[in-house]
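Hey L., structure's done. Input below.
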Amino acid sequence: MHCLYTTGIRLYLLLIRLAAFFHPKAKLWWRGRQNWSQNLSRALASKRAPGQVTIWVHSASLGEFEQGRPLMEAVKRQYPEVFILLTFFSPSGFEVRKNYPGADLVCYLPPDLPRTARQFLHIAQPQLAVFVKYEFWYNFLQELQREKIPVWLIAALFRPQQPFFQSWGAWYLNILKGFDHFFVQNQDSADLLEKHGIQKYTLAGDPRIDRVLQIAAEGKQFPSIEAFKKDAPILMAGSTWAPDEAVLAQLWEDPNRCAGWKLVIAPHEIEAAHLEQIEQKFPGQCVRYSQFKLENHQNLTVMIIDNIGMLSALYRYADIAYIGGGFGSGIHNTLEPMAFGLPVIFGPKYQKFTEALTTLELGGAFVVHTAEELINTFDQLKSPAFKSTASHAVQHYLQQNQGATEKIIKRLELFLSS
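Output:
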């Protein structure tokens, strides 16, 4: 099975190499790993002191980075002498966070091949490896075990449908047993590990909750949003795709229903063609954030956020949040609006997200399958009493589940003092 796995990795590399000729992200993926060993050696030689304790943190992309971020920032506050090496698998993570100041060095994770993994660890020489959520790289885990380097999985989330827990999944289960400790998000994940003979875990929760609460506390201000909002309540639609924008357009086409309200759309993709499609769905009502001028656009009711990086802080201006992705492969970040006490609405693909499942049960989140259901839910949430009940449910969930970072740091204190 190991041979088959490694062959699959080699085939993946070949496909990426071919895709790099015509796909921008594949090109970034491939180019970012060229001469990786020389680049890593050179960077470490210039940035890291001899003998400096190194923690290697690996995130697949931006979402996982946000789960690892509170830990990295806590380490830097409490142990500034520790060197943090941060790696990404995806260009969408690396390109956005390659200059992240909370890590001492940021680079791509090289391919998960036996020789490559061995070479990476020889150069990086970490004292501890921390993988985030779904990162199960067999050859790296094998080499970490061989070198007796502890490896933790934080923000871990397990489901019975995963290969580890199937009758035919013994090889995959052995991958899990390569970890020294798990920090799981929920009791169901802990129970699955217990059932399969793994007791090296801590029920910690999701570190993203700590991060989004931190963002909410910062209270970052955006004068253009404040000028656009004035005293109007706002429906904030975050990380939307075309199907999301279609149902939002049907909601917004009745001026009486949305009288007094304003809509802010932060699309997941901000290519020019997509922005133009949104503008066509809301004819005569839209202004882009980058073009907003109060004297010219004071009567418009829809603003499009045409940049990346603002959304998590923008929710402070909202009264209701709509989260995109639910009509596609899965919803995006619901915790960011929840940090501001907002009830959240999303489409039908939400089942893999613990926070969505739980807040649905608590009455703080609402799933819609059609534009008609969105309209009905919006009408309900316009009621102050109904909205207040939903907001309290969201706040209760966050209060009960914060503190994951502190639990991880406590174990790290023991590790660093040993």
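The longest strand covers residues 234-240. The domain at 215-401 is CATH 3.40.50.2000 (Rossmann fold).

-- N.
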